[in-house]
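Re: [ENG-882] Designed sequences occasionally contain unexpected residues at chain ends

Forwarding the minimal case from QA. Structure tokens:
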């Protein structure tokens, strides 16, 4: 989890943030928890005058709470643009501040061992595949992308009766482990991420298996964006952190957690 303890520095040393640094608070979805934990450690040396803290919240709940005014921060990060677009429509983001930190891809996943022999999307039509899980597409980026992939592949109508919806995207691997669903389309980075909102482990290593990558022709390039939230108490420091999140200084942190570098140039804006 992100360092949120006053005075946190490498090795527990250093002055309290109130004395020498400006506190910048970041909202982080569960799927970015591990990479942001690493970035927070790096920032202690790279941005010594900034005290980087954060809340790790399921992305839909995080977006809802920003919209209803019950959650405040300097920066908002996400996996995908559904949540960013909801905040843009409500005027919650600083105009022109949306930046892309890294890319990721979609894969097809099953429980370990792939007991039903699912090899590609069309195998989801097999009668022995009873349930396919995905987050609700109207409010969640991965659900929205999955629905569009299935539509473009000509499978949505046939698979619609099989779809089961968890309360959050973080629960999709749990549905596979527990046998509540036979397959899912997920971000490939989610199979590396170990954090869950409740703090419970995702399960034994290898409990969920990646069986195939989704054809990239079926979906647009997907980004992990970050943006400045309106109402920041420290907008200049927050913008410096935003620049840091899209810089080469943290590119290795993203790569180590399965993310792809931006192409053709890092940190491209995508404000609409």
């Amino acid at each position: 989890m992100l360092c949120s303890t006053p005075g946190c520095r490498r090795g527990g040393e250093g002055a309290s943030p109130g004395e020498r640094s400006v506190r910048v608070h970041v909202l982080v979805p569960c799927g970015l928890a591990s990479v942001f934990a690493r970035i927070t450690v790096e920032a202690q040396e790279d941005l010594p005058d900034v005290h980087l803290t954060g809340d790790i919240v399921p992305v839909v709940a995080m977006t809802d709470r920003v919209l209803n005014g019950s959650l405040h921060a300097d920066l908002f990060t996400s996996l995908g643009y559904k949540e960013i677009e909801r905040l843009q429509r409500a005027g919650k983001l600083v105009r022109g501040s949306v930046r892309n930190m890294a890319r990721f891809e979609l894969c097809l996943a099953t429980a370990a061992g792939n007991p039903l022999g699912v090899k590609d999307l069309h195998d989801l039509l097999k009668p022995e595949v009873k349930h396919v899980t995905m987050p609700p597409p109207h409010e969640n980026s991965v659900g929205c992308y999955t629905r569009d992939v299935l539509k473009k592949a000509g499978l949505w109508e046939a698979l619609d009766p099989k779809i089961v919806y968890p309360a959050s995207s973080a629960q999709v691997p749990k549905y596979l482990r527990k046998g509540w669903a036979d397959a899912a389309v997920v971000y490939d980075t989610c199979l590396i991420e170990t954090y869950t909102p409740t703090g419970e482990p995702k399960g034994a290593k290898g409990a969920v298996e990646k069986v195939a990558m989704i054809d990239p022709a079926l979906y647009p390039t997907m980004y992990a964006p970050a943006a400045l939230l309106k109402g920041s108490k420290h907008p200049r420091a927050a913008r410096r952190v935003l620049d840091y999140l899209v810089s080469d200084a943290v590119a290795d942190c993203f790569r180590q957690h399965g993310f792809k570098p931006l192409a053709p140039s890092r940190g491209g804006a995508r404000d609409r």
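QA comment: On inspection the terminal residues look reasonable. The longest strand covers residues 22-28. Proposing we downgrade this to a documentation issue.
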